[in-house]
């Protein structure tokens, strides 16, 4: 019956029927869902726990004692401090990432992140599994989070369909929203019942143990759902015996340690590389309790997707959760040598968003001894994918290039739209490295527009290389460095995993009107794919709109920083997935802004639409952009891009509040380090301050726009895996307490509260796809109200001390709710 309903919706032009869109858009199939963990929480003032710990100067020892205290009531409370934990050199905060183990097997979504400074736990997130009652493990046949996700999604479609105005046109907001929701349903739910059907197939008979046959069956089951090729999906389902014998499993064996099985699988249909996998547990809510499900965790790299999937280890091999490491921006609706002679580029300079707002100019290669010590066109032979035959002999020697190939970025054309990239075409600027190429697109007949765009590929690749390197260097200077998981082939001995520079495809031939970024864990190359946009004649090239490139590269930033560099599954769906989009929009908009305030639309040049590719421009004017936290409940705000618009708008309001207070700096790049490594304050930082022991405090940006970038990036490091809007808001506030001592806490609270994300905002009935009923809250904490004095001593908090569903981690919050009056901030324009 449900399939018939969805078919009827599709026939009505509501689900997947995009023919009425102004321009045909390349929409790749993507799957992302997973169970909601109601017990997961983020705590920003856990002083009552820190006071129980023995004094220690070692943050790792503090974390170990702290976590031991947290899990003391959990049977088999085993855990491991992950190797990607690190200390932020700028703030002095140590970010510890902890993974839970049960019976020697990791709980893949059992995470604790602890933020420590000077022996004090500043904040922590906790999603560890805590058994309730006698049942520890889920009964396989009774557990189906995939079906629960699809049922809740289907119910929303039914509700919205019933409320649809029958007279509304095909381009009405309601019909557009249902088309979007229909796509999400079709992509994620089309095969939801197949595992139960396939469980009875002779080729899928359950084995007695978790041998390679179970791995291949579970993986093939996932590929039936994941492949966008419907013919292949049908063949995999109808004749699995044809494919299973060809899928070769190689298990990894360890000399020591209690490691669960890990493996690679070759010859996987529709995968472009061997699939990595391991045995793990994931948590599955069952009614009022929480149980563990044994799964195979797969990392599946496909042409347009890179999935991290959890599939039941036992038949029926149901998908428990899946995250797509690829993120879209569719129309939605060695010794360091002395500084060499640098390259020059004829490009749209940093801050010029697109060809409609400025002309190209000659820009110089950025040499920064912190961010890019050997410049943009050099890397050691030992880290050079094109020099494998020289890696052992000349590994430490530096290779200098005259193409768009270096330590941070490999940029090239990808007209074939495939996974080949190593030997793709790149412009060669010769020994003087003058990248000065013609860009003069001409209007042509429609059938010749693609060839016309290809004529300026040298200029396109140069622009993509320039913008991507500038983004790398900017993010680095605000704390996205080697130990925190940035993208570099060589890390200069500074920690982190190497050999993961960004692979940047210009004019990717796999589609139009899009852009995406794939973010695997630290040590694997990020992949940025930029497309042509057939929204005008001549075509418009997404590589030339800096905001789109910045947005995509920001996915790598937020994914690597949230939950730790080795965990790419923390921003998969719902509010967390939406914020992954929102951070990209916010950073792109902040970078292009100037001291004369203006509203900004996202992607307007490439899309050839004045209002851009979002529902509203980013604006302080509530008539122009009315978004509040409650907006997430509206039709059309189920997808991650729409959720992200709201988050970006909230951040935009926060940023303007801080600009009003601290002023605006024209150049977001901090001063370059001096020869002795010290960073001059210039007019960028406040005067250096020192702790009582003489150690320097973190440098604080003195202007509002640079400060907010720092706080947002610091907040990503503090927040937990799979954060909510509340968690990310609290992490930014915690970041200000760490950096400035909290001098902007009330300004930040008032800005968030002005758009409904105050202390009294809440959400009820949260669903796996981001649904629920939200309530705007316009209150701020008591200490931010000038007419209500706070009590002299803060009460200890653990998230919800008194069972009233209020976050008591903010000092005196329960007292505030009782005593303070609602406070709403409105901007004067």
Automatic annotation (TrEMBL):
Zn(2+) binds at residues 328, 551, 555, 581. Its main location: secreted. Its cofactor is Zn(2+). The keyword Repressor does not apply. Residues 766-811 are annotated as: Disordered. Gene3D superfamilies: 3.10.170.10, Neutral Protease Domain 2. It is found in: Secreted. One of its GO terms (molecular function) is metalloendopeptidase activity. GO terms for cellular component: extracellular space. GO terms for biological process: proteolysis. InterPro entries: FTP_domain (IPR011096), Fungal_virulence_M36 (IPR050371), Peptidase_M36 (IPR001842), Peptidase_M4/M1_CTD_sf (IPR027268). Binds 1 zinc ion per subunit. The active site is at residue 552. Pfam families: FTP, Peptidase_M36. CDD domains: M36. Keywords: Hydrolase, Metal-binding, Metalloprotease, Protease, Secreted, Signal, Zinc, Zymogen. Residues 798-810 have a biased composition (Acidic residues). Residues 1-19 form the signal peptide. Residues 83-128 form the FTP domain. The keyword RNA-binding does not apply. Its EC number is 3.4.24.-. Belongs to the peptidase M36 family. This is Extracellular metalloproteinase.
